[in-house]
Amino acid sequence: MSFSIRPAHPDECPSLRVIERDAAQRFRTVGLDAVADSDTTSASFLRSVFAHGIVLCAAEADDAPIGFLLAGQLDQALHLYELSVASAYGGQGVGSALLAAAEQEARRRGLPCLTLATFRDVPWNRPFYERRGFAEVLVDDWTPAFFLLQAGEELSGLPLENRLFMRKELG
Prior knowledge:
Layout: E1 3-7, H1 13-24, H2 33-37, H3 43-52, E2 54-60, E3 65-74, E4 77-85, H4 94-108, E5 113-119, H5 126-130, E6 135-137, H6 144-155, E7 163-169
Parallel strand pairs: 4-5
Antiparallel strand pairs: 1-2, 2-3, 3-4, 5-7, 6-7
């Protein structure tokens, strides 16, 4: 399969939300129907990330988006808010390529690490990131920003007992 990684365009927001909805359906297979049924990222948050963060897109040869990554600086890290790949393209290296592009962007910005929040026991979450050099950040090492992010996740109804923060040092 041939695809490229490029900055997304704000007019692609509807396509990104379709990808997010499609990718979320996979959570039904692990009993997280509430995640699959939840709203997609709000248009206002997407606009904010376009204005103040990084929105990367994986696109097919015809330039149609098949995956995306949302990130922004949080503390002294590039924090990944979301990584979604359309289900038809799962397991084909799209997510890995998006992560590699985010790492390159963090290095370009002089940031020493990547951070993210993910599910502890979902096979395509924690293990995926661990294989790519991420490690769990223990609660005693959380920055205040992690506590604020967790509070937002709690308000959105995510099962906090299955959530964790991870960090990848870029060296």
